[in-house]
Amino acid sequence: xxxxxxxxxxxxxxxxxxxxxxxxxxxxxxxxxxxxxxxxxxxxxxxxxxxxxxxxxxxxxxxxxxxxxxxxxxxxxxxxxxxxxxxxxxxxxxxxxxxxxxxxxxxxxxxxxxxxxxxxxxxxxxxxxxxxxxxxxxxxxxxxxxxxxxxxxxxxxxxxxxxxxxxxxxxxxxxxxxxx
Amino acid sequence: xxxxxxxxxxxxxxxxxxxxxxxxxxxxxxxxxxxxxxxxxxxxxxxxxxxxxxxxxxxxxxxxxxxxxxxxxxxxxxxxxxxxxxxxxxxxxxxxxxxxxxxxxxxxxxxxxxxxxxxxxxxxxxxxxxxxxxxxxxxxxxxxxxxxxxxxxxxxxxxxxxxxxxxxxxxxxxxxxxxxxxxxxxxxxxx
Amino acid sequence: xxxxxxxxxxxxxxxxxxxxxxxxxxxxxxxxxxxxxxxxxxxxxxxxxxxxxxxxxxxxxxxxxxxxxxxxxxxxxxxxxxxxxxxxxxxxxxxxxxxxxxxxxxxxxxxxxxxxxxxxxxxxxxxxxxxxxxxxxxxxxxxxxxxxxxxxxxxxxxxxxxxxxxxxxxxxxxxxxxxxxxxxxxxxxxxxxxxxxxxxxxxxxxxxxxxxxxxxxxxxxxxxxxxxxxxxxxxxxxxxxxxxxxxxxxxxxxxxxxxxxxxxxxxxxxxxxxxxxxxxxxxxxxxxxxxxxxxxxxxxxxxxxxxxxx
Amino acid sequence: xxxxxxxxxxxxxxxxxxxxxxxxxxxxxxxxxxxxxxxxxxxxxxxxxxxxxxxxxxxxxxxxxxxxxxxxxxxxxxxxxxxxxxxxxxxxxxxxxxxxxxxxxxxxxxxxxxxxxxxxxxxxxxxxxxxxxxxxxxxxxxxxxxxxxxxxxxxxxxxxxxxxxxxxxxxxxxxxxxxxxxxxxxxxxxxxxxxxxxxxxxxxxxxxxxxxxxxxxxxxxxxxxxxxxxxxxxxxxxxxxxxxxxxxxxxxxxxxxxxxxxxxxxxxxxxxxxxxxxxxxxxxxxxxxxxxxxxxxxxxxxxxxxxxxxxxxxxxxxxxxxxxxxxxxxxxxxxxxxxxxxxxxxxxxxxxxxxxxxxxxxxxxxxxxxxxxxxxxxxxxxxxxxxxxxxxxxxxxxxxxxxxxxxxxxxxxxxxxxxxxxxxxxxxxxxxxxxxxxxxxxxxxxxxxxxxxxxxxxxxxxxxxxxxxxxxxxxxxxxxxxxxxxxxxxxxxxxxxxxxx
Lengths: 180, 191, 310, 501
Description:
Chain A is mainly α. Helices cover 33% and strands 8% of the residues of chain A. In chain D, strands 1-13-12-16-14-15 form a 6-stranded mixed β-sheet, sandwiched between helices. A 4-stranded antiparallel β-sheet of chain D has the order 2-7-6-3, with no helix packed on it. In chain D, strands 10-9-8-11 form a 4-stranded parallel β-sheet, sandwiched between helices.
């Protein structure tokens, strides 16, 4: 009797296993996760995290190959958002990858530019326009301040400036609390 | 009718799994940081628990007892729970990807929820009918969902409170759960 | 802000003072019937809880004087004192006061942060830890020597006695109940509450919703089992009903924010109070009802994010 | 002629001006100053580029930057960083105009209501730099353009100044009621307005009387909407809601629903623009901090605050007294909505509707919030300020949004009633600003993501194309080299076949 039952159970297990293998489709769960992680990142595409862009970094986080504290432009708010999505504790930014700065944009000193076009391909968001032997310029609204164009410039005519003038960056300060 | 109502009330409040019997504490602490997550886990648990309670009852009554195999009860129930969870996940993924995206994360967690096994075990201890087992499972799950959601909302509020450093995080969560449990003790004796 | 507009100014301390003022008549009546034990309770609890408060403020390196002077702890201590039977052993009083102050308030960050009513936390801790002494409302005066046991045992024990009768399967009317001291005290609470309403310290939503739902729930129960329950007319004036409705449930810190949520909150307390009084092991359900509804407050607040005004 | 049955404001405060208050409704015109300071910044805090350079001579009315006109004729002497009337107390690029005393203005042709096109009328409003004079300083032409998309819009002329200490619109109406009604009628006619209302508090009896007379005299179709004097009845969202029933949420402009809600002084400015007059001045109330004495001045934009206050002091001895006692204390705006500014050469702008002179009231010590909900009772837009405060102070922007932080109109009622003296409005201002920046950052991230994806696909495509082209070239080269070898071999064969000589 016992043997019969065990055999029956084994058969049942096989059946269920077969059913599962038929039912289970290749999951797209990881894609969804990568997308949710990518949405938390600031999309500067600066590669400071040592990955070639925000999405590759998101993929690395999703597969557990990278930590959530490697994004200097995003700073603490990005780390908090990632911790929330992944259900892991919040950690401090890893300063090996850089420090958090206020938003900035690239600026080309147009007098010094020789029109070499070397800075155009590295720009991850196509924010530099210009042509051979002609002056280049940065579209400030599209620039993410990733600094990737600084290195290739042979005459060092690209610098980073604060994204917006002081007065539009100004925020109402946090009031004092009773026990601060 | 009033008997069924009593079973439900007893399962939801009086013998609340989390706050009175202290079962299923891991998801209670783990998935209560956001109300929306808590609700997701609660719904998934309700589904699985109700189904598992009924199936365990069937297994007990029609397989284990006639064959005198009651010593296999725990293994059998765990097997059933795992199957139900996996089954739920697969069906959900196939037929309702949206729901799966919302609840998918929590489904595997339910397998390890000791409350599910406890409900199945307790329901079979008192030689009850299938309907009673079903009601008990459902009531327990509703009770679980209720306190989970209440607790999640509470934790969202505590997150904004100015809690002394030594009590921040898990400490205050446990203290809060303790006081909630104290409140649920008021139901003691309701029959 | 600008003081050029002649707006009525009120401060936190002012609000607490008014509530304490409204507590005086009921307290006086309680002292009249139960003796100075009530005063002893209140003073011990006040002392211990203020000491706790000062200690915590010292640990957190914050000024203690304004925290004590806002009166919130004193008020909570007074309320807890009113709920305890006179002659409670000193160490129980200390435990109650410490749980109220530390567990009920300060672990959550102090004034304004606690999700549970501190006085009710203290009460529940005591009731569960020391059920025997906590339900012995025998007055120390000549009442205890009286021949008829019912005279010496007042209303909280009327509810107690009711439970015993019910357990024994006896009808309420086979025994004469003389709950009138408690009725009088409840009327005193009611007047205090009306004073608070008139001064605008509390709003009508919570007390009215609570009393209404308690009356409806009790009415249904009475209609179903008339011989096992008190008549609804005396129910609203029994136990701590009025104290709960006007002073405990209306604690703004632990009540929901919006008026709609407050109606639900009050109704929930009323219903649960009656349910617990009727079916649970404990004679009085208000403390647990308040704590249970406190559990639901964050969720209620999350559901009603806008104020609805008439 | 008078609109009946207006909904009550859900909340708000009846702010009484102190007894014995004296408001001077005469309009005192300020004499021409020697210097005017014109900040190169608009109401959205965008920095503007100047059209003129230092040393240029300008005529009154000349556009010296987009939306900024010269208030008089003179010479641009400086381009410096200068303070401007804003709570940030920051400095912005500012042009200094030294007046030449001629006060010559450019002349613009008259625009007639029937003959000229809508386009021309709008352009004229833009050209004369008409901005909202109620306090927000919106670009009026843009606002009207938005309303013109609607067929028969509703016009609400806002003359409600419920904040004590501000009475410039009251003074304007008392002095120019006929011109105001004329201007309103002209606007109605142009925009084909179906329903025109003029909202004013019911306690401004003189102004209402004069308006009624003017309405009768002009046979106007305007309706007067007297509102009970409860602060903040004049806020756009509550006003539109009460008069039309349209619920404005999340900072939606009323124009989207075909409602033009516009300040009464702005309406007059539009009308005057059509007549060729530039909008380079406004009426401004100067009030003592205790709100007991108030005068109304006609001030050109760019006039320094200190000279304005000095002039007010010369008109009213009580203001002079208050000024003597507290020389440095001036706040811009009313007692609730205003902010402290030092009494210096900071200029008056379109948004400055009042100056308060005197010592600021001392702030009472704060204590913890006990959720008493007094703030929710007075909130005119039905928010729960205590919950918002808890969310904003914990930097929980999601929760703050759930409690509708966007709907807050920053009226300051909750501050006034809070028993714990918590500066709630400052918190909400801070929270709104943080939210704005967060949303901008999210928007930028979305755009950058899209551009980066395009960049990546294009680069990949280019790499693929290149690889393909390389392969093709290699193949061709291989073929070519193969054929070269073949030719060589053939030549070789031919060579070998030839008999050697």
